[in-house]
Amino acid sequence: MADKAGPMTKSQLISVLAEKTGMSKKDVVAFMDLLVDTACKEAKKKGQFIMPGLGKLVKVHRKARMGRNPATGETIKIAAKTVCKFKVAKACKDAVLGAR
């Protein structure tokens, strides 16, 4: 697991998953790559990808709006754009933060 110095790295995650599942590290890497690829393609095509118990990857359209340049204080127009967001599932929030 990750130590207190920082978050778990990809190689640490692969090692933990390989150890807990009995899969080889090569198979875990292939599975993770497939999962990420599938999530990205589904979110792009259908607008969202749900990972039960973890959350969902959602494509959201952000409207044009007025903003402020922090360096000069000048008001600027920020163009509309599509962004990708991750919404954490309630079960995951409760597991990490504790039920409220």
Commentary on this structure:
It contains three helices and five strands, in the order H-H-E-E-E-E-E-H. The protein is an alpha+beta fold. Strand 3 and strand 4 form a beta hairpin. The protein starts with 9 loop residues before the first helix and ends with a helix. The chain has two domains: 46 residues; 51 residues, HU Protein, Chain A (Irregular). The protein is elongated. The longest helix has 22 residues.
In short:
The protein is built from three helices and five strands. With 100 residues, the protein is of the alpha+beta class.
Q: So, the CATH homologous superfamily of the largest domain? A: IHF-like DNA-binding proteins
According to CATH, the fold-level topology of the largest domain is HU Protein, Chain A
Fraction of residues in β-strands:
25-35%
Unreliable segments of 5+ consecutive residues: none
Mean pLDDT, nearest integer?
93
Alpha carbon gap, first and last residue = 27 Å
Strand order of the largest sheet: 1-2-5
Largest sheet: 3 strands, antiparallel
> What string, H for helix and E for strand, traces the elements in order?
HHEEEEEH
Number of domains: 2
The helical percent reads 40-55%
Computed structural class: alpha+beta
**CATH second-level architecture of the largest domain:** Irregular
Shape: elongated
Total helices: the number is: 3
